Amino acid sequence: KKYELHKKYIEAELTENKITSSQLSSLPECSTTYCTYNRSGNLIVNSGLLCNKKALVFVNGNLIIKPPIESDNSTALSNTNGCIFVVKGTVTIEAGSRASTSTTFGYDKINAYIISDDVVTIQHDPYISPYNPKKIVDGVYINGGLISRGGGDSIDISRYLRLNERLVYPVFAIDLHPKYGMLAEKFFGNSY
């Protein structure tokens, strides 16, 4: 609702698009400074999505994220571009491609800000099993933010690290990037 009230202030710099596919591998074309995307059902964000625009994505359903979600590219972090996902349903963060090696711990990375009206679940990494406890499981790292308005267990972390990694690294880490505050102010106004 705040977006609808505030968009008149950025209309000259705004393009609104619909996402018709249930899977998103790249952001649809947008030639203006700010872009909004609307999905009327569930959405799967495929591994390697580049959030290389100032984008607001509304999902009127559930969101499944297959990490990584990159910023401008896989090696550089943008200080201006980013994706804000506003989700009516649940958010599921699946295990991504292997970030850890056989000797080094790594994170499934998500460069985005995610707001959900329901539960956010970080799924178990099936790479480890009781039959091979020596394998290193990836953690989850969000450069952006995460808000869940679900009741009770609003963020369900079903991923566990081995004791060796657990003593040194968190299984889940969030690094709030200030660009999302500035993006949110552009999309929603300064009273969000």
What do you see in this structure?
The N and C termini lie close together (10 Å). With 192 residues, this protein is mainly beta. The protein has helices at residues 2-6, 163-166, 179-188, and strands spanning 14-18, 23-24, 34-39, 43-45, 49-50, 54-59, 63-65, 69-70, 82-87, 91-93, 107-110, 113-116, 120-122, 139-148, 155-157, 172-176.
Essential attributes:
eight-stranded parallel β-sheet; 35% strand; 192 residues; mainly beta; 10% helix
CA(first)-CA(last) distance: 10 Å
Low-confidence stretches: none
Provide the succession of SSEs. Answer: HEEEEEEEEEEEEEEEHEH
Helix content: under 10%
Overall radius of gyration: 17 Å
> pLDDT average, as an integer?
89
Q: What does the overall shape look like?
A: globular
Q: Let me know the number of strands.
A: 16
By helix and strand content, what is the structural category?
A: mainly beta
Beta fraction? 25-35%
Largest sheet: 8 strands, parallel
How many separate helices?
3
In brief, what are we looking at here?
The protein is built from three helices and 16 strands.
Layout: helices, strands, pairs:
Blueprint: H1 2-6, E1 14-18, E2 23-24, E3 34-39, E4 43-45, E5 49-50, E6 54-59, E7 63-65, E8 69-70, E9 82-87, E10 91-93, E11 107-110, E12 113-116, E13 120-122, E14 139-148, E15 155-157, H2 163-166, E16 172-176, H3 179-188
Parallel strand pairs: 1-3, 2-4, 3-6, 4-7, 5-8, 6-9, 7-10, 9-12, 10-13, 11-14, 12-14, 13-15, 14-16
